[in-house]
Amino acid sequence: MFSEFIKKIKDYNHIGVFSHVRPDGDCIGAQVAISLWLQKNDFQVTAFNEDEIPLNMQWLMKAVDIETPTEEKLAECDLFVMVDGNALHRFGEISEWLEDKSLPIFMIDHHPNPSDEFDITISVDDASSTCELIYGLYEEHSLSQLDEASAKALYTGIITDTGSLQFESVTPRTVAIVSDLLARGDFRPNEVIEVIYSNKTLPQMKLLSMALDTIQLFEDNQIAVMSVTKEMLEETGTSNADCEGFVKYPLSVANIKAAILVKDFHDDGIRISLRSRSNVDVNVWAKELGGGGHKKAAGAWHEGPREKAIEEIVKIGAKQLKDIETTTVL
Amino acid sequence: MFSEFIKKIKDYNHIGVFSHVRPDGDCIGAQVAISLWLQKNDFQVTAFNEDEIPLNMQWLMKAVDIETPTEEKLAECDLFVMVDGNALHRFGEISEWLEDKSLPIFMIDHHPNPSDEFDITISVDDASSTCELIYGLYEEHSLSQLDEASAKALYTGIITDTGSLQFESVTPRTVAIVSDLLARGDFRPNEVIEVIYSNKTLPQMKLLSMALDTIQLFEDNQIAVMSVTKEMLEETGTSNADCEGFVKYPLSVANIKAAILVKDFHDDGIRISLRSRSNVDVNVWAKELGGGGHKKAAGAWHEGPREKAIEEIVKIGAKQLKDIETTTVL
């Protein structure tokens, strides 16, 4: 998969490596691990990101410093490698500068539907993470170059993009890679886990507390609904980003078939996230509300008010629960 | 490790397999997986547990029924195999019956300090789980016998005993085993994860909501304290067991060095759980309160009242934070 990449990259000297804006564990992990690989193979490397690196990922910058791009620093590079983004605009304002300069750009990513803006495109949308792909680069070239810092960086990306190896995207290969990373990096999971998941603020805890208190069950406890309101965000000084992952709480209620997160704080309506834990197809459900998605995860908008939205959503779900003979997953 | 076990078990016909009382994922997973192995190798098998199997584990009984022991059923067995308990009393009232009959008993377990009550003792206290050990049995005898049901059972035990492969007990081998289980069982993690972690009740959600609301930070945000009170348990109709895992919430606050869970609902005092996410040694800390444990996790009791307990605990922690130069893990 990386043979062309490994061959062609030899034509360049100073590589600028970009991770996407609003960075997460996978893009930072991939950026650090490929930068270390480039350094070990005698390239000059500068790692860039337009945004701040989240607090819980900053330890990764001990291995590779990630800098804010400036025209001066960018001008030193003769090739750019973009990781974990499927189009140039995912990397921020730099995209325009890059387009103007028409410098060569390679990309490595696992998001579907990559744009055709890149000179080399390594895009595998059924990979769990971009870090899983970067492991493949080491594997094709020289696993012996995978040291503790690169192992921990790749581990960080795989873990954060797979909900700690719990998502459907996790294959036997993903897990075998993690086993090898623990061995080569000579570390135990908790050493990294405690740092990457320890990024919660007190306002986020208060918001979660309030949201948990709203969970309601409907239709003989088959549907769980959690709500987050504008008042909650205002009282706690939080925003939409602080609700990330909240839907897992109603989804963890025993015996439910589907869970719904109702976000009643957007200016243009109520945002509905639907998750299924049965053969209830939430894509069908979301479509009745003018939205869509997948069987297990879908979304829609409702004009409100919240009580009416919940009533209507539950009514549609109740119909589905009756129409099909539902079974839980196992 | 299993050579004597595999050789000696051939002398018997009908094996009674026990998992420990108050069963969890690891003992049930191990029990189901070894019962399937015994069945495949033409033994008669009856699986026993004195307690109810938790709702989120009941799907495992599709492969192997787990029965309440009766004298009649027990009398059919000529050998007992006890999994995931280091002493006979861990398996309930049956222990007395077994002692009286002096029937042969084998054990497989990963808890430290096994008793000497067993005829064969397979005890590995640095294994992540008993399920990891049962995988070793298949491995030594016949990995080809590891089918979907046994793979999912072993996966359940390893995952639930390691906090989804996040604990210090997880080695490269543990993770390699999980990779093999996913391959042999031909399943993706979410299929099992969604079921085993979907066991929460609405009262547990309310209790968590209340507990999150109590989180306080001390000593320049280096110590996070969460409290659970008798009033909270009473208002939600919950008990001590419903606080399991709560300490991970104060422990996930950014930049803290240690987290404390204060359980103010026991009749005989306030129970304090201490966790470290730095080089703060909570064992030293707990000892000053007359308790103890390990560097990263320890416990103690305080006579109360709660405000005084928190004040004293924080004071001891503050002294430690000053005495040693603290660093976070990475």
UniProtKB/TrEMBL annotation, chains A, B:
SUPFAM superfamilies per UniProt: DHH phosphoesterases
Domain DDH span(s) in chain numbering: 15-158
Name of this chain's protein: DHH family phosphoesterase
Domain of life: Bacteria
InterPro entries recorded: DDH_dom (IPR001667), DHH_sf (IPR038763), DHHA1_dom (IPR003156), Oligoribo/pAp-PDE_c-di-AMP_PDE (IPR051319)
Entry-linked Pfam families: DHH (PF01368), DHHA1 (PF02272)
Domain DHHA1 per the UniProt entry, residue ranges: 223-316
